[in-house]
Amino acid sequence: xxxxxxxxxxxxxxxxxxxxxxxxxxxxxxxxxxxxxxxxxxxxxxxxxxxxxxxxxxxxxxxxxxxxxxxxxxxxxxxxxxxxxxxxxxxxxxxxxxxxxxxxxxxxxxxxxxxxxxxxxxxxxxxxxxxxxxxxxxxxxxxxxxxxxxxxxxxxxxxxxxxxxxxxxxxxxxxxxxxxxxxxxxxxxxxxxxxxxxxx
Length: 200
Prior knowledge:
The protein is α/β, with parallel strands linked by helices. The chain has nine helices and five strands; from the N terminus they run E-H-E-H-H-H-H-E-E-H-H-H-E-H. 54% of the residues lie in helices and 12% in strands. It is globular and about 50 Å long. It starts with a strand and ends with a helix. The relative contact order is 0.22. The model has no long low-confidence stretch (mean pLDDT 92). Pathway: Cofactor biosynthesis; coenzyme A biosynthesis; CoA from (R)-pantothenate: step 5/5.
């Protein structure tokens, strides 16, 4: 089975692109939502999180206290790296198990913001980078994340791998710059992946 990764920085529209593949009948693994699920449901990871951040990382009801965790890691690159080192291996295992559920499909898509940073690219055969110019991304994000300021968003973007590096490392680039239509780009890749699928 051909495995395709979709990545890009915050605000580029990678989720929109992934949704288009889903509409075409291709299973899509949403790394962000699956990471949240794993953090709530994987007992080994829950134990690791409590060991690392204390019992207060979960509420009395057993729910992950995302606000507390964010306050610990947001301004600390070391703590963020530590959190990712705990979570990413479990997400990789979850993805490997998920693949087995879709063995009848010609290809699958894995969407992840930190595809390169988490080494998740090693689990896929082809990579798509979704690109949008910085000013377009900021405009979209200010409309979507109304609680964040432009400075907040630029701080998040500055911590991510540059778009230039993502595009350089990707096999394919989809431009979601409000100038070019995205659907024809996705359809062209879909046909290409169907043609490649039998070789994997």
